[in-house]
Amino acid sequence: MTHIEKLAALRGLMAEHHIDAYIIPSSDPHISEYLPDHYKCIAWASGFTGSAGTLAVTQDFAGLWTDSRYFVQANEQLTGSGYELVKLKVQTAPEYAEWLAECLPEGAVVAFDGRLASVALAKAVQEKLFPAGIRLNSSVDLLSPLWQDRPALPAAAAYLLGEATTGASTENKLQRLREDMKRKRVNAHLISSLDDLAWLFNIRGSDVACNPVVLGFALITADTATLFINRRKLPDAALTTLTAAGVEVADYEQVEEALDALDPGTTLLIDPKRTCFAMYTRALQSATIIEQTNPTTHFKAVKNPVEIAHTRETMEKDGVALTRFFKWLEETVGKETITEISLAGTLRQFRAAQEGFVGESFDTIAGYRAHGALPHYKATPQSDSPLQPEGLLLVDSGGQYVTGTTDITRVVSLGNITDAERTDYTLVLKAMIEGSTAVFPKGTRGYQLDAITRKPLWDHQRNYGHGTGHGVGFFLNVHEGPHTFNAAAVDVAVEPGMITSIEPGLYREGAYGIRIENLVLSIDHQETLFGTFLAFETLTLCYIDTALIDKSLLDTRHIDWLNSYHARVYEALSPRLDDDERRWLSEKTAAI
């Protein structure tokens, strides 16, 4: 079926079930950011492939609500689909619920599949619709009957990581979790989020592209721990190891039976942002529910010394791959055909040559000229641009290694750069340095660091529409909570041991985009009469293109930071390079 035909069929089922509006979130039963093919419902229904958005369908309108990162992409991909782009004013806000409350009559029915919406989202929609007299049905799956060739759930093998890699055993992590549960006065905890599961059980897999996770749930009590997973994914040795750690392994589908079997007096902890509404409503029938962020989300955000040491080593491997890639690019562009897609493939090859490489941590964003102005651009055969020896190229990429996760953005000059491009680039670099060199009191929140980073751009009346930084997992999801550096007042303090990106940008639609990104580690800095102060250690090791810098826009301290950083990059990477590569990197990291 075409997307128009799918929309017509969906409306037919809506009429048959007396549903006035149907909501399709971008999610799965684990409230994942990136989805297995089985749950890419929005892409199947509308053609939109972005990782954030919601479809809302009535009999006379079908819209995709998404944020500014995807406006251009959505306009292109929705053409001829029957869906229209609705631009969100606030990122992730369920503004479609307000629209439904205004346009639907009292007594109307709005439906969605409760497996694909978080508890927090479902309640936010309820708050908008109930005062308008609109009923909500959260147990309707209208896509499965229409999606005849729907991909099966992934069945790839999973594996366990040893304590030498993770720095902590599953037994140790379970003990820590149970101690926290006791403090919170809860006697059971349901975990649905895949990265929390991966961290707790030291398990990894490939059920979701770019994220080394396995589909599963966990139910933890004071004396039991059950992992609900497709048992066939684990070899016998792994099952034996988990059993020895006090973990029972049950089939993936049995989690619903386990929730039904909870004692009536159970106090169950769930994370409302990482648990689907269907599981919540099921558990509510037998347990008292406490809604809080998963304790493991806080635990895994603070890396232990073993994880930090592995990450530093991983940054050297990634830096070598990137050095060889950018050297190849500089020496090849204009002589051989390179396109955005082929460039991304070549970068993967350089990373794959490094020991411990598992895959990419997200789809590479290779944006040449105007495509660089699309923060989440992904080249397609239709958009794939050939590179020329002129203009700006933005490359945002990352790798998954057994010893860590990387995420880096660099912009390089391919030739004939304008003064305007040089100015914008220098201001973005200045912003990145401001964020990286911030010294801040213990208890500082991400929105405060977001503002510090943006100030050099604000001083010149420039800004960017995305956040400044996100947490990064240890051989886990490249986007990790609970902390984030953006304008939202997220009440999570930055703690020593957290790994976060700092990635300010500037985008000129139709012309070029600039973003410079490093990963940083939060560290203790100094004890003073005014309390404890923290700072950042920059982890990423890759040169920053100095050919684009207008020194007049930088203060001495910015230049000193850049020269010091480049000296460290050369010192760390040069022993791993051959003579020709060392000469090239020496030129790229020369002091300015």
UniProtKB/TrEMBL annotation:
Q: What is a single molecular function from GO for this protein? A: metal ion binding
Q: Where is the Peptidase M24 C-terminal domain?
A: 533-592
Stored InterPro entries: Creatin/AminoP/Spt16_N (IPR029149), Creatinase/aminopeptidase-like (IPR036005), Creatinase_N (IPR000587), Pept_M24 (IPR000994), Pept_M24B (IPR033740), Peptidase_M24_C (IPR032416), X-Pro_aminopeptidase_P (IPR050422)
Keyword field: Aminopeptidase, Hydrolase, Metal-binding, Protease
Q: Which is an annotated Pfam family here?
A: Peptidase_M24
User: What's in the GO CC field?
Assistant: cytoplasm
The Peptidase M24 domain extends over: 311-521
Domain Creatinase N-terminal, first and last residues per copy:
7-129
Concerning its family, UniProt says: Belongs to the peptidase M24B family.
Q: PANTHER family from the entry?
A: XAA-PRO AMINOPEPTIDASE 1 (PTHR43763)
Q: What is this protein called?
A: Xaa-Pro aminopeptidase
Organism (species): Parapedobacter composti
